[in-house]
Design goal:
Helix content is 38%, strand content 33%. It starts with a strand and ends with a helix. It contains 6 helices and 8 strands; from the N terminus they run E-H-E-E-H-E-H-E-H-E-E-H-E-H. It has a 4-stranded antiparallel beta sheet with strand order 2-3-1-4, with helices on both faces. 44% of the residues are buried. The protein is an alpha+beta fold. The chain is globular. The protein folds into 2 domains: 72 residues, BMC (bacterial microcompartment) domain (Alpha-Beta Plaits); 103 residues, BMC (bacterial microcompartment) domain (Alpha-Beta Plaits, 2-Layer Sandwich).
C-alpha cells in the first residue's frame, strides 16, 4: 500500500528541521518541501505506510509548538502526488471542478477523496502559495463525475470545517482551460 504524509508548521527553520528528521527517520521519497503563505513550511513524503507513518511522527516530534497540522493518507491515489508536484498530464479537459480549502492538509484530503469517488483527473493541487494559507484543487472529467467528485471532497470527514468554496463549470471557456493547464 502506498501512502502520503505531510507536516505543516508555522516556522520555516522548524519546517526544514522537520523535513530533515522525516527523511532520516524512514525510507521515504520527498514529494515537496517548501514555504507557503503566511510564513509556513510544509514537507510531504510518500512511500509504504509504515515508513510514511514513522517519517511523519519524526517530523511532528521535532517541531515543538510550531505544528499547524499533519496528515497520513494510507492508501493515497498516486494522482494526488502527481498533482501536488505539478506534473499531471491532462489531454482532454471537459467539465472543471475547483475546490478551495482553508488549509493545505484539507486540500490534499479533498483531492484524494475526489479522485477515489469518481472518474476524474486532477489538474493540480495548489498548496497555499500566494493565497494567504488557502489551497485549492482543480479537476476535470464529465459533468456528473466532476459533480460527484466535488461533493465527495466537500463531505470528506477529514476536511470538516476546512472547506471554503467549490464550483463545477460544465463547459469552461478555452482561455480558462489554458490558464489552468
Amino acid at each position: 500500500m502506498y501512502a502520503l504524509g505531510m507536516v505543516e508548521v508555522l516556522s520555516i527553520p522548524m519546517g526544514v528541521l522537520a523535513g530533515d528528521a522525516m527523511l532520516k527517520a524512514a525510507q521515504v521519497s520527498l514529494v515537496t518541501a517548501q514555504t507557503v503563505c503566511a510564513g509556513k513550511y510544509i514537507v510531504a513524503v510518500s512511500g509504504d505506510v509504515a515508513a510514511v507513518k514513522a517519517s511523519v511522527e519524526a517530523g511532528v516530534n521535532v517541531v515543538e509548538n510550531t505544528l499547524v497540522d499533519s496528515l497520513l493518507i494510507p492508501n493515497v491515489d498516486k494522482r494526488v502526488i502527481s498533482a501536488i508536484s505539478g506534473v499531471s498530464v491532462i489531454e482532454n479537459v471537459q467539465a472543471v471542478g475547483v475546490i478551495e480549502t482553508f488549509s493545505l492538509s484539507a486540500a490534499v484530503q479533498a483531492a484524494d477523496a475526489a479522485v477515489k469517488a469518481a472518474n476524474v483527473e486532477l489538474i493540480e493541487v495548489r498548496l497555499g502559495r500566494g493565497m494567504g494559507g488557502k489551497s485549492f484543487v482543480v479537476l476535470t472529467g464529465e459533468v456528473a463525475a466532476v459533480e460527484a467528485a466535488v461533493a465527495a471532497a466537500e463531505n470528506c470527514e477529514e476536511t470538516e470545517g476546512m472547506m471554503a468554496r467549490s464550483v463545477v463549470i460544465p463547459s469552461p471557456h478555452m482561455d480558462i482551460i489554458n490558464a489552468l493547464l
